[in-house]
Amino acid sequence: MITLKGEHIYLRALEPEDLEFIHTIENDESVWEISNTITPYSKFLIKQYLEQSHKDIFEVKQLRLVISSYNEEALGMIDLFDFDFKNSRAGVGILVKDVKNRAKGVGSEALKLLVNYSFSHLGLHQLYCNVSEENDISIKLFTKQGFQNIGLKKDWNLVNGSYKNEYIFQLINN
């Protein structure tokens, strides 16, 4: 059975009511390094994005879901991006918004749900993610879900005037 519901959280589609939540995340400079963001997003642009979020992953090559608690609190977002139907793969990105909700299994449960959905429902063969060499929490998260470190991209991202290395992790559905 395909489900996006876990024991403590569930993954849901974006709703118009998520405007403030997404605006806060997208304009949080402390996470711009993770998302390769370099400029703030206006509410107008995010509203336009939300209006298009109903489109199929096969059309827009992306699927963004909200990580939600069962008391309807939006905890974060998890994405499939660079969806490649021909080669049956996609990139994965995840962010748990508040530090108080991190290291409590929220990200792990969300990633597990998305991996299962990607392989069983979307029929993907592989998932990958890019993680800064310094991001020990994400390295642990993806490794715990079976992703393997397959390489290091040297001087990959320019952050605050310094180049940082980035790992690429991959999970193949066998």
TrEMBL record:
Record keywords, A-Z: Acyltransferase, Transferase
Span of domain N-acetyltransferase: 9-172
Keyword Mitochondrion recorded: no
Annotated Pfam families: Acetyltransf_3 (PF13302)
Highest taxon of the lineage: Bacteria
Enzyme class (EC, first level): transferase
EC number: 2.3.-.-
GO molecular function, one term: acyltransferase activity
Keyword Glycoprotein in annotation: no
Protein name: GNAT family N-acetyltransferase
Lineage: Bacteria, Pseudomonadati, Bacteroidota, Flavobacteriia, Flavobacteriales
